[in-house]
Amino acid sequence: MAKLNLKSMKKSTKDHIITFAMVIVVYIIVQTMITTGNMSSLMQGLLVPMCTYSIVAIGLNLCVGYLGELSIGHAGFMCVGAFSSAFCTKLLQDSIQNEVILFLIAIAVGTVAAAFFGFLIGIPVLRLRGDYLAIVTLAFGEIIKNVINVLYIAKDENGFHFAISDGNKIELSEDGIWLINGAKGIAKIPHLSSFTAGVIMILVILFIVYNFVNSRTGRAVMAIRDNRIAAESVGINITKFKLMAFTISAAIAGAGGVLYAHNLSTVTATPTNFGYNMSIMILVFVVLGGMGSFRGSIIAAVILTLLPEVLRGLKDYRMLIYSIVLIVMMLFNWAPKCIEMRQRIAAKFKKSAKKEAA
Amino acid sequence: MNFLSYLINGISLGSVYAIIALGYTMVYGIAKMLNFAHGDVIMVGCYIVFMTMSGQGWGAVPAVVLSIIVCTVLGIVIEKIAYKPLRKATPLAVLITAIGVSYFLENAALLIFGADTRSFTNVVTLPALKLAGGALTISGTTIVTFLACVVIMAALMLFIKKTKAGQAMLAVSEDKDAAQLMGVNVNATISLTFAIGSGLAAVAGVLFCSAYPTLTPYTGAMPGIKAFTAAVFGGIGSIPGALIGGILLGVIEILGRAYISSQLSDAIVFAVLIIVLLVKPSGILGKQVHEKV
Amino acid sequence: MALLEVKNLGISFGGLRAVDGFNITIEKGQLYGLIGPNGAGKTTCFNMLTGVYTPTDGTITLDGKDITGKKTVEINKEGIARTFQNIRLFKEQSVLDNVKIGLHNQMPYSTLTGILRLPKYRKVEAEMNEKAMELLKVFDLDKEADFLASNLPYGKQRKLEIARALATNPKLLLLDEPAAGMNPNETKELMETIHFVRDEFDMTVLLIEHDMKLVSGICEELTVLNFGQVLAQGKTSDVLNDPQVIKAYLGE
C-alpha cells in the first residue's frame, strides 16, 4: 500500500484526514475517561446529544455553506427522522432482536423519510429566491410539529387504528399498544443510541459529505451558489442539483433525528426539541463553525453544548448569546468597517512577522 | 349566522395581519430584505403598553403613543446597527443577521420581562355592536381593528403618492443606484421605511393583543411569520396586496380553525403559503422580476 | 449549410421593442462581429441566442436544428457557449475547478460514483484534470490553476471565462465584449488567442465588441445594430466604411 505522504497530498484531502483524526481522537479520549471513571454522569448524558447536534449541523452546513440557501426548518427534518424511525423500531422490536440491525433499519427509515420530505419541500421552493426558502422551511417545521401532535396511531390484535385530533376515538383492546399518542408522542422507544453509534454515524456522514462536495455534483452545486446564470450557461441543471443537495441535507438531519429519538424513552414534538429554537441553535453552530467547514460545525456544536453545562451562570443567557453570535459573525464578515479593520490587523501581523524573520 | 361571525373574526384578524404585512412588504420592496425581526417589534410594543397601563396606570392613548414612539426608534436603531453595514453583503448574510436580531429581541424580552404569560388589557373600550336581534355580535375591538387597517392603508398610499418622501421610496424600490444618482438620500429613505413599518407594528401589536390577550416574549413571532405569508400571498412589495393577502389569510385561518381543526390552523396557514409559492410565486398583485444578465 | 441561422428575431419588454427583425447567418469557422452603440440591443441578442430571454418572435437554427425558445441549459448542450459582459466566474472556486465545471456534461459520472469514490471517479477526475489543464495552458493560465478565480487579475478573468465556455465543447462561441477593460497589449494578445482558438478548436465565434481595432483586426464579417434593428451587414471593411454606420457611431 502507498505510504501516507501528507506533504504531497491535495490540500482538501489533508483537511479531511485532520477532521476524521480529530473525531477519532476525541472518541478515544472520551472512552478512556469513561472507563477510568473520570467523567461525570451529567457529562456522559451530553455525549449523544452532542453527536446529534454535530450531525444535524453537518447537514445544515451542506445546505447553507455549499448550496448557499438558508433553511430554518432543519429541526423539522430531524423531527421526521425521529418519529418515523421510532415508530418503526417500536413496531419491529419484538420481531428483530439484534439491536444493531434494528438501529440500522431505524437509520434507513429515518433518513429516507426526511429525504422524502426534503424533496417534497424543495420542489416548489428551490426555484425561488432564498428568503422564501427560509420562510417555507420554517413553515414546514411548524406544520410537521402540528401534524404529529394531532396524530394518533395504535395497534392491537385487530390491526392498526388511526385517528386525527381526538385519541379517544380509538378503542384499544387491553394488550394493544400506542404507537403515536398525539401530543404525548411516542413512548417506550428502545434505547439503541450510544456514543459509539453516534461517532460512527458522524464518520460515515463526513465521508459522504466530503466526497460529495469534492465530486462533479458538488462542484455543480457550488457553481450554482457562486453564479446561477453562469452555471446555467455551462449546461448545469439548476433545479436538479439544488434539489439533490437539499435532499441530502435533509436526509442527514433525519439521521440526526434517529440518533436523538433512540436516546430518549419518550419523544414528543415540542417547540424546544423540534421547533424554531432548535433550528436556530443548529444555525448558530454552522455560522460560528464557519459556513462551508464541516469540521467547524462539529467543533462549534460540541463547544456550545458543553459551555452552558460547564459555566452554570451562562445557562440563562445562552439564547441571548446565540443571537449575538449570529449578528456579530455576520457583521464581522461583511461590514465594510470590519473588513477594513481585519485587513489592517493582518497587514500589521505580516509586517511584524517579516521583521522577526529578518 | 355562525359562519358570518367567523367571517367577521377572520376579517378582524386579517386586518392585523395586513398592518403587520405592510412593514414586511415595504422593507422588502425597498431594502430587498426579509426583516425577520419585524414580528418581535410587535411584541416589544405590546410590553410597552402592558407595562405602562398595568404597571403605571397610564391611560390607553398615551400608552399606545409611547409604544409607537419606542417601536419606531427601535426599528431605526435595528436598521442602523445590524442591517446598514450589510448593504453590500450577500442576501444570506443579511437574512442570518435578521434572524439574529429577532432572536435577540425575544431572548432579551425573556430576561427582562420573564417567561410568564401576562394577560393584556384590552385598550378598546368601544361597546360591541349587536346585529340581527343579538344573534350576531361584533366586538368593539373588531370594529376598531378593521377601521384602523383601512385608514392606515389609505394614509400610506396617499403618503407615497403625494409626498416627496413617498416618491423617494418608490424610486429606491425601483432602482437604488439610479435613485442615488438622482439625488435621493437612499439611507434616509430606508431608515424612514423601517420607522414607518415599526411604528405600524406597534399599532398592530396592540390590536392583536386586544383580541388575543396573552402576552409572552414569543407573542410576536407567529403573527409576524403569518403576516409575512400574507405579504407573499398578496404579492410582496405591493401595499394593496398586503391588505388583500392579510384579510384572506385571516379568514382562512379562522375558518380552518372552526371547520377543520383548531390544532391544525397554523399548519393550514402555512400550507396556503406553500401552495401560493407553487402556483403563483409572485402573489396575487405582485409582478415578476427578471434578473439582469 | 450555415452553422447559425437567425431569422426575424424580435423581443418586447412590456411595450418596449428591444430588438426587431434581427437576421444573421454565420458559416462554420467564421469570426463574426456584432457591433453597435450602447443600448442597441447586442447583449439582448446574446441573451435570446442562449435562452436567457425567450424571443417574442423569429427562429434560431443551429446546425440545422431549431433551438428557438429552448432553455439555457439545453441550448448549451446543443452547442452554444458564452461569456458575459460583466464577468461571471465561480469566484469562490479555483481556476481549475471553474474549467472543470465547464466540463460537467462532457465527462459525466453519477453522484453515487462520486460519493463512494468508485474507480470510475478516479479515472474520470484524472481525465478531467488533464483536459482542464490543457485548456488553461491555451490561455496561459496553467500556473494559476490553484488560485481562487476572484484572485485573478481582470484580463485573466476574461480569459478564464472563455476557457470555461470552451470546456463545454460548443459549436458556436459567443463572446460579450471580451476586450473590455484590457490594455492595448492584453487586447493584442487576446486577438491572437481568439485566432488560435478558431484554428485549433475549429471554432465559430460571434463576438460583441466596442474596440474597433479588435473588430477590424479579427472579424471577417460584421452586423451593426442600432436601436434594436440591423443597420448594416457584410464584409468588415465594407461595413466600417458605410456612411450610415459612421453616422450612427459618430452622430451627425
UniProtKB/TrEMBL annotation, chain B:
It is found in: Cell membrane. GO terms for cellular component: plasma membrane. Its main location: membrane. GO terms for molecular function: L-isoleucine transmembrane transporter activity; L-leucine transmembrane transporter activity; L-phenylalanine transmembrane transporter activity; L-valine transmembrane transporter activity. GO terms for biological process: D-alanine transmembrane transport; L-alanine transport; L-isoleucine import across plasma membrane. It holds the Pfam family BPD_transp_2. Keywords: Amino-acid transport, Cell inner membrane, Cell membrane, Membrane, Transmembrane, Transmembrane helix, Transport. It is a multi-pass membrane protein. The chain crosses the membrane at residues 6-27, 59-78, 90-115, 135-160, 181-208, 228-255, 267-286. Belongs to the binding-protein-dependent transport system permease family. LivHM subfamily. This is Branched-chain amino acid ABC transporter permease.
UniProtKB/TrEMBL annotation, chain C:
It holds the Pfam family BCA_ABC_TP_C. It comes from the Bacteria. InterPro entries: AAA+_ATPase, ABC_AA/LPS_Transport, ABC_transporter-like_ATP-bd, BCA_ABC_TP_C, P-loop_NTPase. Gene3D superfamilies: P-loop containing nucleotide triphosphate hydrolases. GO terms for biological process: D-alanine transmembrane transport; L-alanine transport; L-isoleucine import across plasma membrane; L-valine import across plasma membrane. GO terms for cellular component: plasma membrane. CDD domains: ABC_Mj1267_LivG_branched (cd03219). Keywords: ATP-binding, Nucleotide-binding, Transport. SMART domains: AAA. Residues 4-252 form the ABC transporter domain. GO terms for molecular function: ATP binding; ATP hydrolysis activity; L-isoleucine transmembrane transporter activity; L-phenylalanine transmembrane transporter activity; L-valine transmembrane transporter activity. PANTHER family: AMINO ACID ABC TRANSPORTER ATP-BINDING PROTEIN, CONSERVED COMPONENT OF ABC TRANSPORTER FOR NATURAL AMINO ACIDS-RELATED. This is ABC transporter, ATP-binding protein.
